[in-house]
Amino acid sequence: MKILVINGTPRKYGRTRIAANYIVEKYETDYVDLATFDLPLFNGEEAQGELSAVKELRKLAMEADAFVLTSPEYHNGMSGALKNALDFLGGKQFKHKPTALLAVAGGGKGGMNALQNMRIVMRGVYANTIPKQLILDPPGFNAETKTLNEKSKEQVDSLMQELIMYTKAYIQVIKPQMGEQ
Ligand SMILES: Cc1cc2nc3c(=O)[nH]c(=O)nc-3n(C[C@H](O)[C@H](O)[C@H](O)COP(=O)(O)O)c2cc1C
């Protein structure tokens, strides 16, 4: 089972990255970390397809059976960095694949808009976005150790269990039919 985590915060110290790193380490997933990934601004030019970062992103996404998108909520939406990365991809990489969404907000009931925004965009690339989703606020993190607190870990684990369940179904039932479409 190959799961690809795409970390959507462009900030190296971003809380979203802490959540993404927890998933990557615990579940031994593949990783595209947009805080360090040298991805240009999508311009539609074919030459961008030859860039190593673009090739790597497309390869990892193509090989993935499932995805976790983690995004900060920035101005009521997903980060520009994540949307830009998704613009390099499409149905070829995402069609029918289970996708889990995790938003990290600044508090004050933020995060839902980023989740809704990601869900609409993932509909546009025919991903099979699972119903369970998660928002983490600043109290969900330990500011000193820069880690998730125990409750947040449990919530992330619960999201991952659900994603793994759907991914098993994708691998057993849907994936074998993909070549026939
Ligand atoms: C440009 C910008 C816009 C933001 N807009 C929102 C927002 O609309 N709602 C919200 O809850 N938090 C907002 N925040 C706070 C982030 O969601 C918060 O910092 C959170 O930790 C996730 O971002 P990070 O992973 O980059 O740290 C914003 C932060 C930045 C830098």
From TrEMBL:
Belongs to the azoreductase type 2 family. Keywords: NADP, Oxidoreductase. The lineage of its organism: Bacteria, Bacillati, Bacillota, Bacilli, Bacillales. GO terms for molecular function: FMN binding; oxidoreductase activity. SUPFAM superfamilies: Flavoproteins. Pfam families: FMN_red. GO terms for cellular component: cytosol. It comes from Lottiidibacillus patelloidae. Residues 1-136 form the NADPH-dependent FMN reductase-like domain. It comes from the Bacteria. InterPro entries: Flavoprotein-like_sf (IPR029039), FMN_Rdtase-like_dom (IPR005025), NAD(P)H-dep_reductase (IPR050712). Gene3D superfamilies: 3.40.50.360. This is FMN-dependent NADH-azoreductase.
